[in-house]
């Protein structure tokens, strides 16, 4: 690995580990990096490298020595999945992010970007949400276990920045949609769930479609390709310990 700390965009042959490259976010990042001319992406599917296993992650980093890491691998799901599998959401996410962040630091990765989520902010945070709202009030109960894991990831990046001056940054996207989304009936987010259900209703000639809840909740949505643009911007331009 070169020890020159050139900017992210300067060297299109830099080895970049995109963790979770087959998912909604990871695949959008890969498309974006290929469009920009990056030629040396390091990609491993879940079955090739289980990021919850520390010893596997350690030997992967020691062998491959990536220069940049974008951490888009996680246990992810919509409101029902989060509410049904709290133990999976907290334990799997804590393991993946702890293993990857520490191995990246220990193997001299130049910069890491961690993906959090807007659900880290309090349920009743004033809108529009400010970064300073973090940890000021209780979380939304349906996804607090996932949110607690994400907050730990953000704090881990901040701690490594403070103690080691290591360049680890975090981004907090809102509810995403786009190519390679998860269309599972129960475990997906609302946009793919409703697309699937309305499509099935249209094809099947159904008279009604069931939508969960009261219909009153509000959400912001972001196309995953716009997030990928933002992630490249952060990799190139942002350095610091605030989110
Ligand atoms: N989707 C959304 O609306 C939002 C997502 N985010 C964040 O963005 C990131 C990416 O989410 P998204 O792309 O939607 O999620 P997806 O479920 O689409 O993709 C997650 C990826 O992580 C991989 N993965 C899961 N567990 C492991 C493991 N143990 N070892 C190796 N790889 C693993 C999956 O591989 P495999 O499929 O093979 O299991 C998959 O490629 C996450 O950190 C998420 O919290 C933040 C806000 C909103
Ligand atoms: C990004 C964020 O995503 C998750 O939070 P969420 O925004 O609550 O997730 P959601 O997309 O599943 O729901 C949005 C709203 O939509 C309503 N809703 C109606 N009908 C369907 C429906 O058919 N499916 C789903 N999933 N929701 C429905 C649903 O009841 C809710 O009020 C977090 O767990 C966490 O993963 C996270 O960080």
UniProtKB/TrEMBL annotation:
It holds the Pfam family Epimerase. It catalyses: GDP-beta-L-fucose + NADP(+) = GDP-4-dehydro-alpha-D-rhamnose + NADPH + H(+). InterPro entries: Epimerase_deHydtase (IPR001509), GDP_fucose/colitose_synth (IPR028614), NAD(P)-bd_dom_sf (IPR036291). GO terms for molecular function: GDP-L-fucose synthase activity; isomerase activity. It comes from Stephania cephalantha. Belongs to the NAD(P)-dependent epimerase/dehydratase family. Fucose synthase subfamily. Residues 16-239 form the NAD-dependent epimerase/dehydratase domain. It comes from the Eukaryota. Pathway: Nucleotide-sugar biosynthesis; GDP-L-fucose biosynthesis via de novo pathway; GDP-L-fucose from GDP-alpha-D-mannose: step 2/2. SUPFAM superfamilies: NAD(P)-binding Rossmann-fold domains (SSF51735). This is GDP-L-fucose synthase. Its EC number is 1.1.1.271. Keywords: Isomerase, Multifunctional enzyme, NADP, Oxidoreductase. The keyword ATP-binding does not apply.
């Amino acid at each position: 690995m070169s020890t020159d700390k050139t900017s992210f965009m300067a060297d299109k042959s830099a080895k970049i580990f995109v963790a979770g490259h087959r998912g909604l976010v990871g695949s959008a990042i890969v498309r974006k990096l290929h469009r920009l001319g990056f030629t040396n992406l390091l990609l491993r599917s879940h079955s090739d490298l289980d990021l919850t296993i520390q010893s596997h992650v350690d030997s992967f980093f020691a062998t491959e020595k990536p220069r940049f890491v974008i951490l888009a691998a996680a246990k992810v799901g919509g409101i029902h999945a989060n509410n049904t599998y709290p133990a999976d959401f907290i334990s799997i996410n804590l393991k993946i992010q702890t293993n990857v962040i520490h191995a990246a630091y220990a193997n001299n990765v130049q910069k890491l970007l961690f993906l959090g989520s807007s659900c880290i902010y309090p349920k009743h945070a004033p809108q529009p949400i400010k970064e300073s709202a973090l940890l000021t009030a209780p979380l939304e109960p349906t996804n607090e276990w996932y949110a607690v894991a994400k907050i730990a990831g953000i704090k881990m990046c901040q701690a490594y920045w403070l103690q080691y001056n290591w360049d680890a940054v975090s981004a907090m996207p809102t509810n995403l949609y786009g190519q390679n989304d998860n269309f599972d009936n129960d475990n997906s987010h609302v946009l793919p769930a409703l697309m699937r259900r309305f499509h099935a209703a249209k094809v099947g000639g159904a008279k009604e479609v069931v939508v969960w809840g009261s219909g009153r909740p509000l959400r912001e949505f972001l196309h995953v390709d716009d997030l990928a643009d933002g992630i490249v911007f952060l990799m190139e331009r942002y350095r610091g310990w605030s989110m």
